[in-house]
Amino acid sequence: MLFNSFPFILAFLPVTLLGFYLLGERGHRSGALVWLVFCSLFFYGWWNPRYLALILGSIAFNYGVGIWLEKWGHSGRKKRTGWLLALGILANLIVLGYFKYSLFFLENLNLILDNRFHIEAIILPLGISFFTFQQIAWLTDIHRGGKIQGHFLHYSFFVVFFPQLIAGPIVRHKEMVHQYQNPAFTRLDPTNLSLGLTLFFIGLYKKVAIADRLAPFVDPLFLAAEAGHALNFTDAWLAGLGFGCQIYFDFSAYSDMAMGLAALFNLRLPVNFNSPFKACNIVQFWQRWHITLSRFLAHYLFAPIALTMHRLAERLAVGGWGRFWLTVQVPLLVTFLLSGLWHGAGWTFICWGGLHGLYLIIHNLWSAWRERWGNKTRLSWLGELAARLLAQGMTFAAITVAWILFRAESLGGAGVMLRAMAGQSGFQADRIDFPAGGLVVVLLLITWLAPNALELTRRYQPALENHRGEIRQFAPVVWRPSAFSGLVLSLLAFLGLLYLFVWTRDEFIYFQF
Fold first, then answer.
1. Is residue 343 annotated as part of the catalytic site, yes or no?
2. Which of 343, 356, 363, 467 is an active site residue?
3. The pTM is what?
4. Following DSSP, what letter does each residue of 406-445 receive, concatenated?
5. For 134-192, how does the pLDDT look when each residue is reduced to its tens digit (9 = 90+)?
6. Burial label, 443 (beta-carbon count in 10 A; 0-12, 13-18, 19+)
């Protein structure tokens, strides 16, 4: 079931809300939570009921491992907890690997062994990457000394809560459990209802009126590149910029809708998207794009790898630049190669992740050089502005080039597109799609200059401000419940539903991960 569908908007959501508040207002807090868990499982099973057993089995297994991790940790059996954590993580990764990567592995093995393996298609369960990572993080936190807060019902709700189940954010248990243990959790709050509907319909409009309307001119250009047709410079850059806008507004829409849906139930999710195209360097980009994934990678992947490499450097007595490369740069590259693989089982995604890892390595080298040799002269405000715009432009160009690998179906198609962007096929265009180009320019100006939904509604704390997701305090427009905001919301809702009625509905891009 899609957020941008009539069954969800006109049936599932109203029924879920009504049942939740009817139970909550009558004092049945546990019943309201059970109702939300049931509705979330129904939401997940709507797509394929067979995979309900998979997610329920995953929840039961991980909760059981967590109980023993906590029990053994408190009794001083630290060695046992290490083995148990490894077993829990391995079991999760085996399930994820089977569904997501076995086909990719066998296809590549067949290339080497001359098609010795018969390959059957495996349907990827929705959201498996997200609920797997979420539970791995929970097990790791328990192993590091955390406590199981709440009971099995709370844990189940933490995993299956439908606004974040399919495409994130990747939440941490300690961020959520105190919220649904709060007595106010099940009480009807008109302000939260207004805030939630506003965020939801802002996201719906972004999805159906902007992101989905970009696909008809972006997709043919990438299909042409996949077919080996040479594109000119203009078309190649229009495809890259167009897809950049498409995935920006698609993921921004999902993030807004997820925050809005959570607010309808008096909950706040962590910030996951915060105007990433405003970033002035690649580090800032990853502090603004898929923020909870960046947090997961930093805490549960980069940190252990860096610690291992640090111990290796100590053992080998490596110092200076060698230590810097071994303990920082190499772990960064490995982390982002794995991040690319997490996004998709394909060489294009691995190369996309590797390219971002290379960007971060270059950024670290540049930062180290500036710290040691850079000019310390303070620039004028005009110089600061020029430097900021230059940095933002270079960062955006680098990200746009990387999007080609993210979107292309194969390395061959990506190569055709990248060569055209470099001018190999010439700079003169046979035709210029002025409407599409004009739309892309307008959308880019919006991403760079306009406040986002977090900033518009910041007065009512629309999301948890996790350490990499702080909301900017200044914005020219601030939302508040009023007759005018209600009128604007009604217009957005009407236009969003009208687009749903007139045009076909596309899945969110991150649903495939």
1. yes
2. 343
3. 0.93
4. HH-SSHHHHHHHHHHHTTTT-S--S---HHHHHHHHHHHH
5. 999 999 999 988 888 878 999 999 999 999 999 889 999 989 988 988 888 999 999 99
6. buried
